[in-house]
Records
---
Amino acid sequence: MLVKSINIVSFRNFKSSSVDFCDGVNIIYGRNGAGKSNLLEAIFVLLLGRSHRGGADAVMVKENAGVYRLEGEVDSGGNECSIAVAYQTGGRKKITIDRVGVRAAELFERCTVVSTAPGDMEILSGPPARRREFINVYLSQASAKYLSNLGDYSKVLEQKNSFLKQDNSESDTPYNELLIKYGAAIMLERKRFLDAIAASAREHYQKISGGQKLQAIYNPSVHLDGGTVDYEIIERNFREKLERYKDRERILQTALVGPHRDEIDFEIGGFPARTHGSQGELRTAAISLKLAVFEYLKIVRKGTPILLLDEIFAELDDNRKERLIESFGEFGQLFLTTASQVPVMLAEKGRRFRVENGTITIETATARE
């Protein structure tokens, strides 16, 4: 998976900028606030049609512009194509591949990308929705069926909540069976996904931190009975819990049972990460999770995802930096932002890009000297 080039128009602080990337390490540097993180966000939006920061499209439009447009040449498993993502304020987002309109789901089927940034600490310390978003973004790249079920579940959930807000006290909601159908499938895949990445994340954390342990525990809205979990068990437990909660849902006028209420508990050294993790521990844990996801997608998609590393060395001491670089293993195309010195091990392999006031300049060997 490679991004050969990108053309940015009215995105965040970029007015208009185009750049060609190399196939290996792309080092993006500049002062804080210059737009380094915005460039990585633009690449992520180009590939998946959404922001890894969780930002709304309207927020990503440059002030007073009204519309943003991203276009790039992408090589996906030897198949080159032109992808464009455009959004007009107050309108709808338009995605095209080779000038043909497509749904966002097609980008997830075609592209794989993993990003890590200082804000990822919220995966461990933030609200449950942040952890569910983490699963949704990366599991959707691994499973088209999961992405489809997630979309269908969201639609049915919206319909159920609308029904509960009306005066329907004399009748049961007609949407529970559909919630069970899609929701049970979602929870089963989430369980399998977390089981698949947990051991790898733990190994990365121990290596980078120098010995501490990281635990990821799936705590779904519906009890899974432990041990071997299958669709029928989740479906049965889902239906039983909906029956127990139906009066409470009617009173509160909102759906209280389902994967939209799932939680993931993280522990560092046996203590809850949310309350006991230091900045360095949370940062290391978030990076370890993303490295585990990178390896998982590499296996499942049979190709190397693009890796976006935003200020990855911030708040890490020199020993953790060295161990982190060793953890990268065999990566394909990598984008690295930094406001400080890049470790020599990476700097020797990379092409450097300077970002300043929303413009991107390729740094030549002469300029470095």
---
Amino acid sequence: MASRQQEKEARRQERLERERAAASAAQRRRRLQMASGGVLAVAAIAAVAIAAASGGGGSGSSSHSASPTNKVVAPIPPERIANLQAAAQAAGCTLHSYPNFGQVHTTGTVNYQTNPPTSGPHNPIPASDGIYDPGKTPAK
């Protein structure tokens, strides 16, 4: 009878050992899955950070860019130019200076002395943006 008891105990010990081994293997798999998930998350965050830092892409190989009207726009000068005339010339612009005709508010009709108006008497309430039908332009 003792041998039957010993066999049962030996099988029980073998079963317990298999269960411990299976639990250990499952725990090891979970640790590996968590570690690989963490590595993937860090890689994804790094990729997003690199993409954001690099400006998001685009070809950028051309020194000129096309505007919405398909005209070529002059590039911004690479360095700040303190001389306004030289900066305008470097940007391909013409610099115009107009005298100051004052800044008085008026409710009457105004005839501006420059086009576009740069200074002078003007209506205190600005006209709204938009395109006006003929005969319905805002008062000057």
---
Amino acid sequence: MIKSRAVLAGSLLTFAGIASADITVTPALVSDYDFRGISQTKEDPALQLGLNYSHESGFYAGLWGSNVDFGPGDPSVEVDVFAGFAGGDAEESVGYDLGAVYYTYPSAGSLKYLEAYAGISKGWFSGKLWYSPDFGGKSTAGHTSGLYTEANGAFPLPHDFSFVVHAGYSFGDYWDDIEYFDWSAGFSRTFNNFAVSLKYVDGSDLPDFGSKVFSTDSKVLLSISTTLPWKSE
């Protein structure tokens, strides 16, 4: 996701105060841009970049971008804006996360939509519910709502590895009578300043309306990312 970074960062710092702010940039290279079990790049690699602002109060906001290749209008870039508030303590009690993401595709004209989310976390477990009043930006055919619920687990392993699992379910008017599930399982590890994950991803078969422009084929997905500035030891 990309944005008017100077304007956004300036307004955010004015709102929250630079003394207690933390701004990071996270570049990532993935073997496929997977979104809930659905490839957004026709199973080709993607270069992604995130800009994140966080405040000690729990407020956060940022931008995220990636190359894409799918669907009507043939979008080539996705640019998202997000903001939210996270609090609680996932280790001692329960953590929570509330926010929203605005998805845009600059090269595809009016394709854009808003999605809100609410999540909780406790120890190794995290879960989240997403809701969009116009999922996929299908307003030209009438607003079509969509929901997505997910559960995630991260289990520590020897030698600083983690076993990570995910399961999700899409439902709501957008999906009509379709039952669409997705899941993944794999391993992750941090090597110095780089986070690496390797996982197997799969999803239910989509009907004709989706299978012509999206792929839900099973795949092995490799991701390498780092967060800047690097923290000094």
